[in-house]
Amino acid sequence: MTRERFEDLAEIYGGDIARWPAAERDAAALLMAAEPEFAKAALAAPADLDAVLDAWAPMAVSHQLREAVIAAAPSARPARGGVRGWFWRAGLGAGLAAACAAGLVVGVRLSDVVVQQDDTVSAVLSGYDDLSDVVIGEGA
Amino acid sequence: MDLGDPDEALLARVGEGDPAAVRALVARKLPRVLALAGRMLGDPAEAEDVAQETFVRAWKQARDWRPGVAKFDTWLHRVALNLCYDRLRRRREVATETPPELVDEGPAPDRGLQARDVGLRVASAMRGLPDRQREAVSLCHYQELSNIEAAALMGVSVDALESLLARGRRALRAALSDMVEN
After folding, report:
1. pLDDT tens digits for range B113-145
2. How far away is chain B from the Cα of A44, in angstroms, using its nearest Cα?
3. Which of B85, B101, B117 is the last residue of a domain?
4. Do B13 and B91 fall within a single domain?
5. CB within 8 A of A24, min separation 6: which ones?
6. A70 → closest Cβ in B18, B26, B142
7. Which of A108, B5, B82, B139 is deepest in the core (most CB within 10 A)?
């Protein structure tokens, strides 16, 4: 880095090389090490200006402003609560109950069919073509 | 170049409505936004309005934020600066009709230069800068953005930013010459 560039950077970015562009800092540090008196003189005036500028403190955030900003923030998507949630849950419960009831009815009817089929199968297996031909108590 | 955004994870939680994330993001960013608006506008009430409006826009963005497109901090600065420029423009329009009241911000004769007086002098000197120079000094000196970030925000080259900074700092030094030792 040339002396001129060092002075330019001090003029532009101030007296603290930590605030200088990252790509220039190493070269600036080398120059400071090689020519400490020059660097000290070049940084003095910009550093004084920095100190004066820093006397202007930033505005403090008031409690009111902070709370107003937070109040405007997005809230979590509501869980299914309140009246709508109650109806939703009630609907789900009713649906499940209806499904159970329907299952029960279908099950009972199916069991009747299965019993009838079982009787038919038993008759076929025992050599009868038609259960109506069976006369209970008749001898051979 | 590091493209990682340190605010991205927090912002995602804000988008989901996590109240702790909202408070954390406000703690992290509100002082920066308010400081920038305060320095650009020099008016506490207007600066608070700008900060609040900036966050209203941030909250709208939070759910739809697309990672990797821009850093959130840079985007937030851009929004705040645009809002500041809107107000400065309006102020100029009004100023042509009603000249602003001049306030003597020099040190009071009986108390010397206190820190608060220095701050007021600096504020006055900053207000005297052209808008673009004030923006450059605010972003680089006070907001501590890198030259690349500041140039991108202002839509200028790094060379142009450096020119604005050099002219701004020279004007400040001249305005504050009685307080700068060297």
Report:
1. 677 788 999 999 999 999 999 999 999 999 999
2. 7
3. B101
4. yes
5. A1, A5, A9
6. B26
7. B139
